[in-house]
Amino acid sequence: xxxxxxxxxxxxxxxxxxxxxxxxxxxxxxxxxxxxxxxxxxxxxxxxxxxxxxxxxxxxxxxxxxxxxxxxxxxxxxxxxxxxxxxxxxxxxxxxxxxxxxxxxxxxxxxxxxxxxxxxxxxxxxxxxxxxxxxxxxxxxxxx
Length: 144
Prior knowledge:
The protein is an all-alpha fold. The protein is built from 5 helices and 2 strands, in the order ααββααα. Helix 1 packs antiparallel against helix 3 (51-73), helix 1 (3-26) packs across helix 5 (108-129) and helix 2 (28-34) crosses helix 3. The longest helix has 24 residues, at 3-26.
């Protein structure tokens, strides 16, 4: 994957972290009542709001965004990009696993949207973990 694609994926992941993290940290009650927005309310069915937990979730997402933005600034720094991708992957797979076990509280549309939204993040992280394309060297290729 070239630097531009790697940077784009990292910026998109950072945007997720900034959006969710900023909202949850700065307005935990509003975030809890109305996440993900657009008329959907995915958190209230999980139980009563907890301002401390919501703020901690926001802080966690903001921290993920900082790591991811650092990697986006240096997309060819493979160890940094891999650290960001692995961190997102661990979190998002565990997050997805929780929600897969608790889809029964939602209608069909929200079940599908949950699965799509929660699968995109680990997919993006996996994309960042793909090995770089092999560079062609002079003399590579079919024999003449």
